[in-house]
UniProtKB/TrEMBL annotation:
UniProt cross-references to InterPro entries, sorted A to Z: AAA+_ATPase, ABC_transporter-like_ATP-bd, ABC_transporter-like_CS, MacB-like_ATP-bd, P-loop_NTPase
Gene Ontology annotations for the cellular component aspect, listed alphabetically: membrane protein complex
PROSITE patterns, alphabetized: ABC_TRANSPORTER_1, ABC_TRANSPORTER_2
SMART domains named in the record: AAA
Domain of life: Bacteria
Name of the protein: Putative ABC transport system ATP-binding protein
PANTHER family attached to this UniProt entry: CELL DIVISION ATP-BINDING PROTEIN FTSE (PTHR42798:SF6), LIPOPROTEIN-RELEASING SYSTEM ATP-BINDING PROTEIN LOLD (PTHR42798)
Length: 233
């Protein structure tokens, strides 16, 4: 089934007298369980597109249907609600709270979902276990390696069972070996049925996705299945 559907999405930024057509017309359809990498040169519209897909911003024109719901014209509050329910974010810089333990960081999204403290801790512990950090719950971010921090962030992204995991340059701050470990984790999540959307400028990282979409000048330049991965799946 289709989880993301955009029809002729455009985004115009206005800066004084100047207008920038960051997205011209992007129509794309992504099925539940797909693992897609978005690539493209700087300024091609990747961040703009991800912000719209992640319900952080709305398009100027066109429609965006997320999990059957038209989110194109929602207010900021409506978008925030959809975001909390549907999207798990993973960032280049991890974005963990430095004074909170791993367990507390992972449990944070559950506070808004109305779980009790013991339920939150139990679920967060299981999520940490699922990323291989079951014994690191009490550690604070500065007591963990970069790869472990990103695993904590991934556990946090998973905790509400989101429809989509949206990862923006998830290996941008990691060394090569650790980057591949994170890609193996993504591969496992994909194998479990998670939908993963990733932005990366690294070909070696994009290779892990089963579909690669390239943007250029606010348009889709190419959209291809990755034969290496697709035949194996
Ligand atoms: P990418 O992520 O591929 O580098 P962006 O989506 O960040 O591309 O940018 C696409 C175009 O939109 C660029 O020309 C950029 O300068 C412009 N742009 C992005 N965000 C804004 C903004 N908030 N205000 C004005 N222009 C923007
Ligand atoms: P398995 O290890 O059998 O593949 P999972 O790793 O999917 O199973 O789940 C292990 C445990 O983690 C389960 O008890 C499940 O309830 C919990 N869990 C899995 N995903 C999430 C999530 N997104 N949020 C909270 N708990 C989760």
């Amino acid at each position: 089934s289709i989880i993301i559907e955009t029809h002729d999405i455009s985004k115009v930024y206005r800066m004084g007298a100047e207008t920038i057509n960051a997205l011209k017309s992007v129509s794309i359809s992504i099925n539940k369980g797909e693992y897609v990498a978005f690539m493209g040169p700087s300024g091609s519209g990747k961040s703009t597109f991800m912000n719209i897909i992640g319900c952080l911003d709305t398009p100027t024109g066109g429609t965006y249907i997320l999990n059957g719901q038209d989110v194109s014209n929602m207010t900021d509050n409506e978008l925030a609600e959809v975001r909390n329910k549907e999207i798990g974010f993973v960032f280049q810089t991890f974005n963990l709270l430095p004074r909170q333990s791993s367990l507390e960081n992972v449990a944070l999204p559950l506070i808004y979902a109305g779980y009790s403290k013991s339920e939150r801790e139990e679920r967060a512990q299981k999520a940490l276990e699922s990323v291989g950090l079951g014994t690191r719950g009490k550690h604070k971010p500065n007591e963990l390696s970069g790869g472990q921090r990103q695993r904590v962030a991934i556990a946090r992204a998973l905790i509400n069972d989101p429809s989509i995991i949206l990862a923006d340059e998830p290996t941008g701050n990691l060394d090569t070996k650790t980057s591949y470990e994170i890609m193996e984790l993504f591969e496992n999540l994909h194998a479990k049925g998670n939908t993963i959307i990733m932005v990366t400028h690294e070909e070696d990282i994009a290779r892990y996705a089963h579909r690669i979409v390239r943007l250029r000048d606010g348009l889709v330049e190419s959209d291809t299945l990755n034969p290496d991965v697709t035949t194996a799946a």
